[in-house]
Design a protein that fits this description.
- Helices cover 34% and strands 21% of the residues.
- Strands 6-5-4-3-7 form a 5-stranded antiparallel sheet.
- It has 10 helices and 11 strands.
- By secondary structure, it is an alpha+beta fold.
- The protein is elongated, with a radius of gyration of 27 Å.
Length: 345
């Protein structure tokens, strides 16, 4: 699909123009007419080449199967739908479909007001869907530093442009620069991250947006697509940090009666399983002090987010194995206890 930020609005306008059987439009005419419509929704005009790409997508992109006729009128080559009754938006939306689409647009609306996402308003206007009260609300931190970078990074990823990130790590005195092939914007714990492959060695890197100082495009460097296993790498972790050298661990833990139902309905990780039957009996015998509650297991890599998540349940979660995870949490609890003891004195 065309990746320009106003592509959705342009395609909607072009669809209307190409359906006009009473007029004859050349590519220059289509460009002028489309720009007139874009101006009405306060969107900057586009070039003839851009419109040519949009038409190519409508015709060959695989989403619409539009048959566009090219013919000569008064010495000019003109374009229109072969079937004047055809429209990529021919099907009338039902009330349920309108409600669902409106809610989807409202979800995207969390980016309202951000640079490079202005096309959302134009798309909403072009569909002529009435505004209504919000039904679904997603967590959003309006004070998050550098959230304005989302739009720019979104476009770099969409347009497959290699970028250089100028960033500063916590407690670092100087900025660092790293060139990456940007692949994914991911949110975790109300914080945004960009994930991509380093240009120099292909290593997958993760950067928090609030640590980025500047983003520069490297248009002379060829973009390399992510490998087939890129998105699967998130299956083995909690959060965004994936250390390639870390193995996937089978982690067994006990949850108290107070929290077991919470974890049953909201798993800590996608691999979570309830331990029951003979395996539960073995654990009951091995840990007789753990009365009530339930035993669970997850299979994931160790990272900061995993330890924080397990620790966040306090006394209601006890890691039983492996020892390395149990010791990490034990040491963290000891450090917390030491700090609290100092302030209580």
């Amino acid at each position: 699909m065309p990746t320009n930020k106003n592509a959705m609005s342009r395609i909607a306008f072009l669809d209307e123009i190409l359906s006009d059987k009473n007029r004859h439009y050349s590519l220059d005419d289509l460009t002028e007419k489309c720009n007139e419509s874009l101006e009405k929704i306060d969107v900057a005009p586009v070039t003839r080449r851009c419109i040519e790409y949009d038409i190519n997508y409508i015709e060959y992109g695989g989403a619409f199967d539009a048959e566009i006729e090219r013919y000569t009128h008064n010495g000019r080559q003109c374009l229109r739908y072969k079937d004047p009754s055809f429209s990529i938006f021919k099907k009338k939306l039902s009330d349920d479909e309108k409600n669902l689409l409106q809610e989807a647009l409202s979800t995207l609306g969390q980016f309202d007001g951000l640079e490079n996402f202005e096309w959302l308003d134009g798309f909403k206007k072009s569909l002529e869907i009435e505004d209504r009260r919000k039904i679904i609300s997603f967590s959003r931190n309006p004070y998050l530093k550098n959230s304005n970078l989302l739009g720019a990074l979104f476009n770099y990823i969409s347009n497959k442009i290699v970028i250089t990130l100028i960033y500063r790590l916590f407690n670092a005195e100087e900025n660092k620069a790293t060139a990456i092939h940007p692949y994914l914007l991911k949110q975790y714990n109300d914080r945004w991250y960009i994930i991509g492959a380093a240009v120099d060695d292909g290593k997958i890197l993760t950067f928090a947006l609030d640590r980025i100082v500047e983003v520069k495009p490297l248009e002379n460097v060829e973009f390399i697509e992510p490998d087939d296993g890129f998105y699967e790498r998130f299956d083995d972790i909690i959060g965004v940090t994936n250390y390639a050298e870390n193995p996937v661990l089978h982690i067994v833990f006990w949850m108290s009666d107070f929290s077991k139902d919470y974890v049953l309905t909201k798993p800590i990780h996608g691999s979570q399983k309830l331990i029951s039957g003979g395996k539960e009996d073995v654990l009951r015998g091995e840990y007789p002090s753990l009365t009530g509650g339930k035993f669970f297991s997850i299979d994931c890599k160790c990272n900061y987010e995993l330890i924080r998540e397990l620790t966040s349940f306090g006394e209601n979660l006890l890691v039983l194995s492996p020892k390395e995870i149990r010791d990490k949490i034990f040491n963290k609890i000891c450090e917390m206890k030491s700090l609290y003891e100092k302030v209580r004195q």
